[in-house]
Structures are given as structure tokens and as C-alpha cells.
What does this fold into?
Amino acid sequence: MLEISDTDATSIISFFEELPDPRSEVNRLHLLGDVIVIAICGVLANADGPSAIEKWARLNDRWLEQHLALPHGIPSRDTIRRVLTILNPLAFQRCFAQWIDSLGILSDQQKAEQKKHIAIDGKALRRSHDKKKNLGALFIVSAWASDKGISLGQMATEEKSNEITAIPKLLDEIDFEDSIITIDAAGCQKNIAQQIVDGNGDYVLALKANHLKLHGAVEELFLDHFEDDFARIPVSRYEESETGHGRIEQRLYFQLTVPKDLQGRDEWAGLKTIGIAVRIYQQNGIEKSDVRYYLCSMRRNGKLFANAVRDHWGIENTLHWCLDMTYREDESRVRNRNFAQNLSWLRRLTLSLIKQHPGKESNVMKRRMAGWSVDFLIQILTGQYT
It folds into this structure.
């Protein structure tokens, strides 16, 4: 049987020691660290809200009593809900970031040898709307380290249209030095490109009609050079294909050094190349294609460009789909904004931990196993796998 030492248990709490406790000291019965550790373990163990977290904790009270102070026993669901409602989401997130970094999932040697890819993308919490307060669904913008399956941070906004203001705030909270940042068209903004370059990162920004003149110029340039298969200009290209479920998909990538006469090129900090990704696939026996253009701060490297684009497309499967399938996030009816943000971060944090486990089981099954077995839960919490 795998044993967890007191050091292992209390080390989790230590990352939350600097977190301000917003509760009144009057009638404060439970330690903040105890409540947070119980919430982390509960969500990891397949509990989706305060009631389920309390039930899990009471079923595992003997184990928890060995490692937590619990001066007044297991906190109630109301206490758990109240703590998650009044905690500052950003401060809460920073504590988790320190904990993840301490696990050494990406070693210093790995950091030095490879560029990390960080995909920034948004997802609506579909049932978090509040008609009484005239609030729509909360929109969560996440930073996802795709190569390691780690959530690096998130920022909440009331509407998808506010994603433009949320992304710079999110970038302020994460370390993206020597990383490639990929962002959809909403984040293709000059100030965001400047911020990434200033932080010693690289960017691949999807370019659409929100920059009409630049998009038109890039589109015209590629169409012109497709005519003679890029005979007049150096190009980096990469091709890959994928088959599955009776479908064949071909993906073509082309990357050009930005021409000196491209309109608006000097307005984008660090802009070195432009790229195009063409996806050709069969749907209902009909061949279809999807074309996207990109602004890049890296020099020409077809494979690197292709990997960045493909990995960004993959965020739908590696993060958003997993949150809906493993945590049923789209079914959550939490409407309080702080509570929704903190619960959302608990899901992303625990999903990150689950994805590190080398077992072949699905994420859903691993989460169930963490609920069935404290030993398995400990493996995921500590990164010590048997």
C-alpha cells in the first residue's frame, strides 16, 4: 500500500499559506488550508460540487484526520461553498501555479531544450447565465501548455467579445518566455503581439477579416504564389495526413518571410513570417477544405509552424472536450461569478494532474479511480506513480 507522509500532505497546504483568508474571524471554525485541500481532493475524486465534496470527505474522514488539522471536523457543504465563493480567483490561481511548478512536470533541462507551446483559447460556461441579474454565460479564457497537458492560468470575462481585454491580463499572470503562443483571431491584436515579444515569447496569431486590409493582402500574396508553386519566393512547407473513422484528412502548411512591401507589416512587433494552413477532408462523400492565415514572429520553419497550428486546433479535444466529458462542465449551473471561476480552476487544475498519470485508462476512469482509492488519489496528487 502506498503511504503518504505528513510532509507530502502538508506540502500542498504550504502553497496556500500566503492566500488571504477573506472570512470574518468571528465564528471561523475551519482552517482555510483544510477546506482548500478537501476541495482539491474532492474534485479530483469525482465530486462536482460542495455537497459531493462534503460527502467524499466524510467517507474519507479517517484518512483526512491523519494529515489535516480539522479542529472542528469535516467542513459542511455550506462552508465549502462559502469559501469558494469569497476567495479571490486570481490569488487562488497563483497558489496553484506555484504548486504545479513545484511538481517539476517540465524540468529545467526540458525547458532549455525545447520551445513550449501555449494555446490561449476561450470556453463559455454555458449554464452559468443569470437572467435575474441580466448576466450571460461566463466566458473563461485559458492558457494551456499543450505539450504537457497543463493548465497554466485562466481569466474570466462576461462576454466573448471581452476576450481582447482578458488575454493581456492572462499573459501578465503566466511565464511564457521561450514559448510559442497561439491565439485565435479575437486575440490577433497589435498590443498582444507587442506584449508577447516584450516577454521574450513567439506568437502564431490567426488572421481573419477583423483586420480586413492585412487579411486581404496576405490572402492575395499566397494566391499569387500558389499559381507557380512558390517558384519566385522561398517557402517552408509541411504536409501531413490523418485517417480514422472512415475519414481521410490532409493538412498542408506554407510559411513565407514577410515581404518588405506588405501593407502594415511594421505595425506588428516582431512579425517575421506569414503562414497558411489548408485542411482538405471528406464529409458525406464531398471533398471540402478549410483555409486559415497566420501572423508569426518565428523565422521560416514549416514543421514548427505546423505543430503550433495543429496543437492549437487540438485544444478542443485536449481541454474543452475533456472538461465537458470528464467534469460535465457544460451542465454546471453555478451562477455566482467567483464561485464559478474557482470551481472552473479546480477542474482545470485536477485535469492537469490527471493527464500526467501514465495509466492507459481514460480521464473519466482515472477520476473515478481517485474516488474509489485513496492510494490512487495520492499518486495523482504527488506525481509518485507505481
